[in-house]
Amino acid sequence: MSGVIVTGPPKADSKDVEALAGYGVATVHEAMGRTGLLGSRLRPVQQDTRIAGTAVTVLSWPGDNLMIHAAVEQCGEGDILVVTTTSPSTDGMFGELFATALQQRGVRGLVIDAGVRDTAELRAMGFPVWSAAVSAQGTVKATGGSVNVPVVIGGQVVRPGDVVLADDDGVVVVPRERARQAAEASEARERKEAATRAAFLEGQLGLDRYKLREKLAELGVTYQTWETYTRDGERP
Questions:
Q1: What is the pLDDT of residues 112-142, one digit of tens each?
Q2: Fewest CB within 10 angstroms: 43, 76, 186, 226, which?
Q3: Is the confidence at residue 236, as pLDDT, over 60?
Q4: Among candidates 224, 212, 220, 193, which has minimal Cα distance to 30?
Q5: Residues 101, 77 contacting (CB under 8 angstroms)
Q6: Rounded distance, CA 170 to CA 26, Å?
């Protein structure tokens, strides 16, 4: 497998990245029309952590972390390293030494559709990671791949310079051209949710706020008393 290392790709504006950093993954995903989520395979190795940054992407051979070494040089302040493999892999391709090198360069975290190891050390040093697996299985450095090319994770395309957000709920990608729009839409959604939260605290039901009683009626769902329900031959 040959490959390419692309230098100096365009990146989302840092102000838009920081604006998006104020919102959770679920909020941004919903605000963008329920798009961009990288699936449920990627889980955090830590808890109560949220990051946002610009993607540096890696396409590696499974069980081979050579291209992660190559990608470290391309990483800088505010980036998030995003790694996938040419076919499914759960090998532990990333650990504490990689995290040390990336942290020194100002990288905010890792998203990898493969395995990681040294998870206790990663938590202790405060380097956030989202991975598809945790495995002590070692890797080799033998096969070429690519850095800063579009990659696909969970059916979503991640390009270098796109915005990546990650928290306890998962990982979402925002195309760099849509970063400002996504931040504005997320702010509007948060305002809407705040109003709904206040209404629920006052006792309003979702059935009424979202006009779901009409939807139930349209679907033929009826209300019956317990006596009627059991008299008509139904069983609890």
A1: 999 999 999 999 999 999 999 999 999 999 9
A2: 226
A3: no
A4: 193
A5: no
A6: 8
